[in-house]
Design a protein that fits this description.
By secondary structure, the chain is α/β, with parallel strands linked by helices. It has helices at residues 11-23, 41-53, 79-87, 112-117, and strands at 28-34, 57-58, 65-71.
C-alpha cells in the first residue's frame, strides 16, 4: 500500500525507525489510512501483523509506540477523489459531512459494508489479526 500511495517509505524504513525510537526511549505515534484504492483484506491483515510485530499499541493506550487509523478521505479536486469517482466508489454526500472517521469511499474489493465492519488492527476487534475475515459471516 505504501507504493500505491506514493509514500516514498518502505516497511523496512518504518521498522528501523520504530526500533531506533524504542532504543532511544522516545515515543512515536503512527497513523494508517484504511480504504485507499487497492486496499484489500489481505493488505489490512498485513498492516495489522506489522503493528503486532513492532509491538505497537492503539492510540487509546498510554504506550510509547502507538498507532491509529482513519478512513481514506477523497477531498474535492484531489487525485483520490478523481480515482474513486471514476470507479463509482465514492459515497455521494454533502461536503459538510466530510469529517475524520466518516466512511466516504470504498475499494474494488471492499464494499462500504465491509469497511464499516472493520474495527481496526486489534486482535479483539471485528477482524482479529491472524484470522481470515469472512464477508458472509
Amino acid at each position: 500500500m505504501l507504493d500505491k500511495m506514493n509514500k516514498g517509505t518502505t516497511v523496512e524504513e518504518i521498522t528501523k525507525a520504530i526500533e531506533l525510537t524504542r532504543e532511544k526511549k522516545l515515543s512515536a505515534s503512527c497513523s494508517f489510512i484504511v480504504g485507499l484504492p487497492g486496499e484489500t483484506w489481505a493488505t489490512l491483515t498485513k498492516t495489522g501483523l506489522m503493528t503486532q510485530r513492532l509491538n505497537m499499541s492503539p492510540f487509546i493506550c498510554n504506550e510509547p509506540i502507538r498507532y491509529g487509523w482513519g478512513y481514506a478521505c477523497p477531498f474535492p479536486a484531489t487525485e483520490l477523489e478523481r480515482i474513486v469517482r471514476e470507479k463509482g466508489h465514492i459515497r455521494e454526500m454533502d461536503y459538510g459531512d466530510y469529517r475524520y472517521g466518516h466512511l466516504m469511499c470504498r475499494t474494488d474489493e471492499l464494499t462500504f459494508a465491509d469497511l464499516e465492519k472493520f474495527q481496526g488492527f486489534n486482535p479483539h476487534g471485528s477482524m482479529p489479526i491472524g484470522t481470515k475475515w469472512n464477508p458472509g459471516g
